[in-house]
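Support request from a user on the community tier.

User writes: "When I paste my structure tokens into the form, the page sometimes reloads and wipes my input. The last time it worked, I copied everything first. Here is what I submitted, just in case something in the input itself triggers the reload:"
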């Protein structure tokens, strides 16, 4: 029996060279316990401790599913870009002086009307250029950070806080993004076998997640929201990709468009 145990220990040590530490811990527990002595089952209880140890070692050392990193696939629709995206399809275009402050901090700070007028004349070409760029862009991306809820074992994936009535807003308080198909963004599917490998990233980040929503610009108009007039940018969502942790580990995606170009580059799962 001592020779058999020696062979198991040697095999264990050889595998140590390539195995991650967490897997080694699981493997060692499968091979030995009770003060380092092998666990012996009762007589006639299965293939014996050696077979159980080998099975446990094989399971612990099985290769994990490689983690995928989520990367941006389209221009970010944020506070700086929202005013010009809105103007790209606005029902009522805004005057240049309303947009100049988003281009120039000097214009925002100035209280001299003559200085502001001179700055505006220099800023107008930049405003027109940004509007033209927004009009020519086919897809935009909206990032929505939130604490990730626990895994939904029934639906096999993660819930999101988005819906037809809950949507991203910008810090400037003027512009809002809504999705024409917002009801489809409340859940991101992700297989349980893959989700279990996200636990270390979730623990390290306090379950912080970022939902990237890609969409095509549909229309822009003013609407009253919660008692205030807002400039609403309507996007048709084509894909939603979920990432967790500081390293943006892939945690599922939902493609909402049959057009491969609109859906973007799929993230391997």
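"...and here is what came back when it finally went through:"
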């Amino acid at each position: 029996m001592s020779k058999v145990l020696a062979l198991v220990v040697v095999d264990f040590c050889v595998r140590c060279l390539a195995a991650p530490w967490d897997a080694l811990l699981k493997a060692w527990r499968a091979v030995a316990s009770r003060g380092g002595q092998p666990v012996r089952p009762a007589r006639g209880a299965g293939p014996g401790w050696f077979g159980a140890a080998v099975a446990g070692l094989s399971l612990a050392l099985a290769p994990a599913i490689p983690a995928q990193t989520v990367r941006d696939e389209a221009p970010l629709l944020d506070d700086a870009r929202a005013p010009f995206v809105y103007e790209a399809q606005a029902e009522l275009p805004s005057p240049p002086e309303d947009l100049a402050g988003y281009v120039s901090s000097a214009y925002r700070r100035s209280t001299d009307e003559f200085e502001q007028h001179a700055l505006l004349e220099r800023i107008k070409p930049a405003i027109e250029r940004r509007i033209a760029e927004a009009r020519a862009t086919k897809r935009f991306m909206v990032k929505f950070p939130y604490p990730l809820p626990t895994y939904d074992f029934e639906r096999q994936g993660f819930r999101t806080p988005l819906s037809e009535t809950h949507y991203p807003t910008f810090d400037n308080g003027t512009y809002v993004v809504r999705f024409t198909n917002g009801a489809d963004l409340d859940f991101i599917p992700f297989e349980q076998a893959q989700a279990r490998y996200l636990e270390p990233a979730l623990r390290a980040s306090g379950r912080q997640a970022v939902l990237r929503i890609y969409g095509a610009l549909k229309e822009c108009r003013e609407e009253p929201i919660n008692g205030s007039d807002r400039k609403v940018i309507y996007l048709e969502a084509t894909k939603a990709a979920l990432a967790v942790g500081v390293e943006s580990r892939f945690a599922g995606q939902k493609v909402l468009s049959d057009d491969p170009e609109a859906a973007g580059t799929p993230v391997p799962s």
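Agent notes: The reload is a front-end session timeout and is unrelated to the input. Residues 2-60 form one domain. Strands lie at 140-147, 157-159, 175-179, 187-189, 208-225, 228-244, 249-255. Escalated to web team.
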